[in-house]
Design brief:
Elements lengths: L1 E3 L19 E3 L9 H18 L9 H17 L3 E7 L19 E6 L5 E4 L7 H10 L15 E7 L4 E11 L2 E11 L5
Parallel strand pairs: 1-2
Antiparallel strand pairs: 3-6, 4-5, 4-7, 7-8
The structure holds copper (II) ion.
Length: 195
């Protein structure tokens, strides 16, 4: 796969040299001038691409795109294998699986904290985005608190998460069951990656 940024004035496009079987992915956020917000977005997108692709070799060009690419590869290398889905089955008091009711627009909420609190993350079933931006999204999409259109009625809540480093973590998971908000704590140990 070739990931490229936007062409600057005076730069030539050499994609015609590529074999047609090579996938090409342009990143609108990747530009030659230094721009902190775009650079941060480009970095997040690059790490996502690496996690999807799981490459053996990352080859970079150009000063800034090359730096972002190398930082993304370093982040990918340090977190690969710790990228996981945290799944929790919701059960009622009798032990039967139940579908949680939406609580603040989500099937569940989780706090993920490292033993020494060097990591502290608020996670949702669709990833770790801030509550504020999530609320904005819900308002924009016209999804009210009590309707989760298009969301399957699952008894399992899944939080996608990449543990940034090995160690001991505590998870607090919150869901609404039969009108009651329930919080449960789970402890996990994340092993170092073998590479
Ligand atoms: Cu939440």
């Amino acid at each position: 796969m070739l990931v490229h940024g936007q062409l600057d004035r005076g730069e030539g496009d050499m994609r015609y040299l590529l074999d047609p079987s090579v996938a090409v992915k342009p990143l609108a956020t990747l530009k030659r001038p230094i721009a902190p917000v775009h650079d941060a977005l480009a970095l997040v997108q690059l790490v996502d691409i690496l996690r999807d692709l799981r490459p053996d070799i990352v080859h970079t060009h150009m000063a800034k795109a090359g730096t972002l690419g190398r930082v993304a590869a370093a982040i990918y290398n340090r977190t690969a294998g710790r990228d996981t889905d945290l799944r929790f089955e919701v059960r009622d008091a009798a032990g039967h699986p139940v579908v949680p009711e939406p609580y603040m627009g989500m099937a569940g909420h989780a706090i993920i904290a490292a033993d020494d609190f060097s990591v502290f993350v608020h996670a949702h079933p669709n990833g770790t985005i801030s509550m504020a931006s999530q609320q904005k999204f819900l308002e924009r999409e016209g999804v009210a608190d009590h309707s989760m259109h298009g969301m399957p009625a699952a008894t399992t809540i899944t939080f996608p998460y990449a543990f940034p480093k090995p160690g001991r973590y505590h998870l607090w998971v919150q869901a609404k069951v039969n009108g009651e908000v329930v919080t449960r704590r789970f402890d996990v140990t994340v092993a170092p990656t073998s590479s």
